[in-house]
Design goal:
single chain; 312 residues
């Protein structure tokens, strides 16, 4: 499969981004640079803390480390180009570069969708079958679930790219977004994008519905189990453990659903950009903060790591 598609290698895209607001270019650059710095430090820090602390070598933190890796990756695919376009006048991106960015955005977003579902299943097993947890969530199963999430993300991305490359693009086109999102790309196609739009819509709906079904089913059983617990202390501990995951799920899926429910008319492009910023730039920063601030084990591990380095 050639990335040039139907003779599209000579095509050049220009990412419009937030260029309609010239007075906001520097403030936005500083804001996004700060967010990206926190994202990188937060996610890589989370991975390091989990790897360095034996107490955190459990299935829950194994999945959390991969969630942090995915967040770091898809933020890195988008944010550096966004920052560049806020300070330079030349906002061009080659057709190949745009397609590759779209490929990796799809890969990591789809992977995160199912990684969150896997984490919900992990909480279900931990709460509903605590005595069998270590047996049920074996290292082999954990690795298989993570590998399946990445593999499905890769497969979806190749399918989307295949149908995107079946379109014909001509000349220099302005992409009304800060990243190579599917709707923004097909909006400037010189051929009918109907099939490509339908394919991504069908897969997006399947991914959302199937992952949300796993999450909702897991949490229904968790709630039923918790309500049967005799002590309020036990209930609080379970809800406290699951709260971080529920917050992350709500923010991520709420943004994705909003993005696909908004019609891409001329008047709605700003809303699409804001939603895109939220799930590609802000959510990767929020996830490590949510899990670290609400997780006693992570906070203790961080304090222990800092104190051990200060004592050296």
């Amino acid at each position: 499969m050639e990335l040039s598609g139907k003779g599209n290698s000579a095509v050049t895209f220009i990412l419009v981004g937030f260029s309609e607001y010239p007075d906001l270019q520097v403030p936005l650059f500083l804001l996004f640079l700060t967010i990206y710095t926190v994202t990188v430090l937060g996610n890589l820090g989370m991975i390091a803390v989990i790897r360095l602390n034996p107490k955190l070598h459990t299935p829950m933190y194994f999945f959390l480390s991969h969630l942090s890796f995915v967040d770091f990756c898809y933020s890195t695919v988008v944010t550096p180009k966004l920052l560049e376009n806020l300070i330079v006048e030349d906002r061009r991106i080659s057709f190949t570069g745009c397609v590759m960015q779209f490929f990796f955005i799809c890969l990591f977003v789809v992977t995160e969708t199912f990684m969150l579902a896997v984490m919900a299943y992990d909480r279900f097993v931990a709460v509903c079958n605590p005595l069998l947890y270590t047996v049920a969530m074996s290292p082999k199963l954990c690795c298989s679930l993570v590998a399946a999430s990445y593999s499905w993300g890769i497969l979806c991305s190749f399918i989307f790219i295949y149908f995107l490359l079946s379109l014909f693009f001509c000349g220099t086109k302005f992409i009304n977004n800060f990243a190579c999102e599917h709707d923004a790309i097909v909006a400037v196609a010189c051929s009918d994008p109907y099939i490509s739009q339908q394919i991504i819509f069908i897969f997006a709906m399947f991914n959302e519905l199937s992952s949300m079904m796993i999450i909702l089913t897991s949490y229904v059983f968790i709630v039923i189990t918790v309500m049967k617990m005799p002590s309020t202390g036990g209930r609080y501990k379970v809800f406290s453990t699951c709260a971080s995951h529920l917050i992350a799920i709500s923010i991520f899926h709420g943004t994705i659903l909003f993005l696909y429910c908004v019609p891409t008319t001329k008047s709605s492009w700003l809303l699409v950009k804001v939603a895109s910023v939220f799930y590609t730039v802000i959510i990767p920063m929020l996830n490590p903060l949510i899990y670290s601030l609400r997780n006693k084990d992570v906070k203790e591990a961080v304090k222990k790591l800092i104190s051990s380095h200060l004592s050296l």
